Amino acid sequence: MQLSVVILAAGQGRRMNSDLPKVLQPLAGAPLLRHVVDAVRALAPAAIHVVHGHGGERVRAALPDPDLDWVLQAEQLGTGHAVRQALPHIPDEHGVLILYGDVPLIEAATLRRLAVPAARGSLALLTADVADPRGYGRIVRDPHGRIAKIVEERDADADQRAIREVNTGLLAAPAGTLRRLLDGVRADNAQREYYLTDVVGLAVADGIVVDAIEAPSTVEVMGVNDKCQLAEAEAALRQRRARALMEAGATLADPARIDVRGEVRVGRDVFLDANVVLEGRVTLGDRVRIGPNCCLRDVTLGADTQVHANCVLEEAIVGEDCRIGPFARLRPGARLHARVHVGNFVEVKNSELGEGSKANHLTYLGDATVGRDVNVGAGTITCNYDGQNKWPTVIGDAAFIGSGAMLVAPVRIGAGATIGAGSTITANTPAGQLALARAKQVSVEGWERPAKATSDAKAARIADSLGTNAEPPKK
Ligand code: UD1
Ligand code: CA
């Protein structure tokens, strides 16, 4: 049986007290709705229909996946009404799986189980036993223990409210059956809405089998309606992803203090210290060690590379056995070959560093191509920007750049060249030679330190040099 998915995402999410539509609230760096879409993709459905309304354009823009079918629900008249907007796009012989944009932690394995009964013509509900059923629709069973109907909290009597078996909202049924049942749903309830949940009572009356599939954990079916629940979901997802990293062999200093906001692949014996944030696609080779307080986004690190504390790495490719940080920044386009060292307060942008090269302290390398075994001294800067254009710097193999050099691009430093400390290099330097571009040191014989001036003498000198309006210094 082919499967069509409907995701309900039209609600406003008033309880968020936010200008951002509820389904766009970020969970692990991605919109809630993104998590739901990713989970259903694993089932390879024939179509994914997203019912949207509030913040419609923003919601669509945030999920640009070309294969999503966006269905507008102009007025939010209830979950049953929302599903009805999508049904004209679904053939009768499909199974329909209904998800909620605000139930983001659902997993593919559970959805697969939920979709099975539809193939034999049944209606399946995902249910959960919860300690605190407040806010949920309650599952009402008949004396034989069969599901009779769902009662929404606002329509429930005291006995019904005591029921702790709840409706998670997720449901699956054959499309033809669902269409017929939804036609019978009326808005005669406390909220004057068309409840999707009413199809359960109608199905029972029609002799259609209703199966309850129990959710494997309450976390998976948790609804996110306010910022407190959003934080709870974040914590739950953090835990889930930390566990996945540990299962893959990584050692985490503290699983509660690591944030995985993307796809992370780890080799063997990777170590991640506290407060590491991983975003986008991150690949860590065998035995990589990441120190505390590091943020890595879209980064690949080769085996045995160590990143010390407090580094920020973005869109960088790093080879094997490199040493980075503490306090280093690799910006987009940084490409480090094996055994490169990039030390404290060093920034590398759109630059390649050849094998064994080192820039250990206080350096900016931008738009540079650095050869092998180059030593870049402390405080060296590539002056790559003239105010309008960016220019490249090329440094040959085994060059030695003295401390505090300004390399004014475009410029080439020959292989094996030495640049004297403090030089401002504006022209290409030949291979193997020493280049010096700095003022000659002088010693002034007989020079004496200034004597303390009287305030009148000071005022006179200031007036003489700067004009009468100049303010004297405070002290
Ligand atoms: C719903 C269920 C309840 C269940 C709970 C689980 C109904 C009537 N009730 O209640 O049994 O226990 O979820 O979390 O279904 N939406 C639309 N259009 C609408 C109304 C809602 O797209 O007109 C969307 C919302 O954006 C949301 C989802 O449907 O993603 C659920 O709506 P919500 O109002 O949160 O329903 P609950 O009161 O939580
Ligand atoms: Ca809800």
Structural class based on helices, strands and sheet pairing: alpha/beta
The ligands bound in this entry are: uridine-diphosphate-N-acetylglucosamine, calcium ion
Write down the overall mean pLDDT: 96
Q: How far is the first residue's CA from the last residue's CA?
A: 87 Å
- Name the helicity range: 10-25%
The biggest beta sheet is recorded as: 21 strands, parallel
Q: pLDDT below 50 for ≥5 consecutive residues: which ranges?
A: none
Report on this model:
Helix content is 18%, strand content 32%. The chain has 475 residues and is α/β, with parallel strands linked by helices. The chain has a 21-stranded parallel sheet that branches. Helix 2 (56-62) links the parallel strand 4 and strand 5 (68-72). The termini are far apart. Bound molecules: uridine-diphosphate-N-acetylglucosamine (UD1) and calcium ion (CA). Calcium ion (CA) binds at residues 102, 223, 225.
Summarize the topology.
Layout: E1 3-9, E2 26-27, E3 30-31, H1 32-41, E4 47-52, H2 56-62, E5 68-72, H3 79-86, E6 95-100, H4 108-115, E7 123-129, E8 137-141, E9 147-151, H5 158-161, E10 165-174, H6 175-183, H7 198-205, E11 210-214, H8 227-247, E12 251-252, E13 258-266, E14 271-272, E15 276-284, E16 289-290, E17 295-301, E18 306-307, E19 312-318, E20 323-324, E21 329-330, E22 334-336, E23 341-349, E24 352-353, E25 358-366, E26 368-370, E27 375-376, E28 381-383, E29 393-395, E30 400-401, E31 406-408, E32 411-413, E33 418-419, E34 424-425, E35 434-435, H9 455-466
Parallel strand pairs: 1-4, 1-6, 4-5, 7-11, 12-14, 13-15, 14-16, 15-17, 16-18, 17-19, 18-20, 19-21, 19-22, 20-23, 21-23, 22-24, 23-25, 24-26, 25-27, 26-29, 27-30, 28-31, 29-32, 30-33, 31-34, 33-35
Antiparallel strand pairs: 2-3, 6-10, 7-10, 8-9, 8-10
